[in-house]
Design brief:
It is built from 3 helices and 17 strands. It is an alpha+beta fold and about 270 residues long. The longest helix has about 40 residues, at about 10-45.
């Protein structure tokens, strides 16, 4: 039966029926899709994704990895207990003691906006040039000025082993490089000549603990630095003022902070 064959008096009722039917169908389609998704979701969650484990057998320097960093060229860098391993998607290339590191424990790698690499180790901060000359012992920046361009050039933030053990690196929006060590925060100055370091005191008052061991540094959207340490979280404002948040005064669940992240809504 077609629409034209319907009696004129019944055509209005048929139109209403067709409209109602179309609305029901349009509402049923999303419902069907939702039900199919609901029933299929356990299957999707139950599916096991393919995983491959990379170890020293595949060329990784050490099975203990402190950090993974992706550079601007797409390489993955693994900071391990036995040097720095670069992964190109197929194989690993390792840079360690044989190439100039004095301490094989690598904690962090930073690629600056200018394309320079800095390597944080348990014994100093290194300027790293993958195209430089590999040699068994690293040299200082002073020596590098009159020698062949080395692969690793070392600098020391402080005068003792704790301040020279660099744990984390961060470059802020102004291009300033910050070094978190086992003995506090340092600012790297390297515009002219060899790198120099300035200790940044972020203690609040005499009753406040020094930050000590620093594990993480980030910058929020307002230009303030947030520092995660063994004694809580410190905020370093652009004007130099500092604030300290810990378990005792602010309800931080635990004072030892491993890492920090600011989400899309600006929450820490």
């Amino acid at each position: 039966m077609t629409y034209d064959s319907v009696h004129p008096h019944d055509q209005k009722g048929l139109v209403r029926y067709l409209r109602v039917t179309s609305r029901i169908k349009s509402k049923c389609i999303p419902l069907i899709v939702a039900l199919v998704t609901l029933f299929l979701s356990p299957l999707a969650h139950g599916e096991r994704l393919p995983l491959k484990s990379y170890t020293v057998a595949d060329g990784l320097a050490h099975n203990s990895v402190n950090k993974i960093v992706r550079d601007s060229r797409g390489f993955l860098w693994f900071c391990t207990f036995e040097g720095l391993s670069r992964f190109d998607g197929y194989s690993f290339t390792t840079y360690g003691v044989a190439q100039g590191l004095r301490n094989p424990i690598v904690n962090d790698l930073l690629e600056t906006r200018e394309g320079q690499y800095w390597v944080a180790t348990g014994e100093g901060l290194y300027r790293f040039d993958p195209l430089g000359i590999a040699q068994r012992s690293s040299i200082s920046d002073v020596q590098a000025s009159s020698a062949v361009k080395p692969m690793f050039t070392v600098s020391y933030p402080g005068e003792d082993s704790s301040s020279n053990s660099v744990l984390t690196l961060f470059e802020d929006s102004k291009g300033v490089i910050w070094c978190g060590t086992e003995k506090g925060l340092y600012r790297l100055e390297h515009q002219n000549g060899p790198p120099t370091f300035r200790y940044v005191d972020i203690g609040i008052d005499d009753e406040d603990k020094s930050p000590g061991l620093i594990n993480a540094i980030i910058e929020d959207r307002h230009g303030a630095l947030w520092i995660g340490s063994a004694t809580g979280v410190y905020q370093l404002l652009p004007d130099g003022r500092a604030q300290h948040y810990n378990h005792e005064r602010n309800g931080l669940p635990f004072d030892y902070v491993h890492s920090l992240l600011e989400d899309r809504d600006g929450r820490l």
